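[job 0412] stage=complex_fold ligand=zinc ion status=START
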Amino acid sequence: MPARDFFHSVMRIGPVQIGTHRDRHGRTKHAAVCSSDDCGWSADYSSRSAAQLAARTHRCRAR
Ligand SMILES: [Zn+2]
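[job 0412] stage=complex_fold status=DONE, emitting structure tokens
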């Protein structure tokens, strides 16, 4: 799970936060991270639209 410190331009869709960070190769990644501690879901995407789509369709298991 990426540290919150990596995030820039964070937006929120439901329980999921979206932000950009750089991977170890210096490429910008768009990460979607569920803010629920009981869920812990996170994923990296190469485009912001893909991350937003994943956030909208995320089925949070904490509910
Ligand atoms: Zn979740």
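The chain has a mean pLDDT of 87.
[job 0412] exit 0
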